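step 4 of 6: structure.
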Amino acid sequence: MKLTTKSRYGTRLMIDLAEHYSEGPVSIGSIAERQGISVKYLEQIIVLLKKAGFIKSTRGPKGGHILAMPPEEIKMGEVLAALEDGLDVSGCVHDPETCDRAEDCKARDLWEVATSAMYNELNSLKLSEMIQ
Amino acid sequence: MKLTTKSRYGTRLMIDLAEHYSEGPVSIGSIAERQGISVKYLEQIIVLLKKAGFIKSTRGPKGGHILAMPPEEIKMGEVLAALEDGLDVSGCVHDPETCDRAEDCKARDLWEVATSAMYNELNSLKLSEMIQ
DNA sequence: CTAATCCCTACCACTTTACTATGAAATAAA
DNA sequence: TTTATTTCATAGTAAAGTGGTAGGGATTAG
């Protein structure tokens, strides 16, 4: 039940972007330096957050990355969901057909409870609340 | 963020034991048959639940496994914690010293929130509530 | 004594994780 | 137009974790 480093680094990346939101595009190099994470690894992680629409980027000198919307509009649960490919604690929560017992499975009910408890709590927090 | 099959199978195992609590010790063979899980794999999983004190066993013919206490006294969060070796979504929640940034890490605060949201919700459910 | 049952340890194929590496494409500034 | 700087795309890889299987020993009811 551990988050991957992709998720942990990705979250720190988002917080870093929020902290520099007013300064315009920030290069991966500077984020990597501040966060102590390799540039190449961050490049891969940022792709996930771009796909989810949280970040927009510009190439070339003076280019970089910036949040696609103000930090107040970004829910932490949705950020995590983008990084983790959903927060479901079991595949059967989202895809019941992957298990032939899913229809009347008491365990599955539990996975739904656990998943939504975490998701709701995380979504009650905005990225803006993560800085200070 | 997916639970391992150990946790999912282990939970189903506990529910199965609860359903047969009044019948005395149940053999792994019969659980395996009902749940469609191999005997050998269940044997490994049950060890974790025995260590945590949820199950007691007797050897020999007519032997088997039974809950060490009534299903009403068993919290699902603690069952999962035993199977998953803690429910922390990141190692730094329980062991801050494993990350030198933990002391003032905004991400870590988030992992604490997510972990306790899930743990508290799961602990509000007793094993007895999982059957019917 | 025998059969049923739990207990213990080792092994293994496969997948995932957590990166590193290489280089191409875009673009601002000289 | 050249150059330096940045993102973008893809491939490779060592180590760890997952999800089992296998074999045999210990215990005990009948």
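step 5 of 6: annotate
 - Chain B touches chain A through 34 residues (CB under 8 Å).
 - The mean pLDDT of chain B is 97.
step 6 of 6: archive
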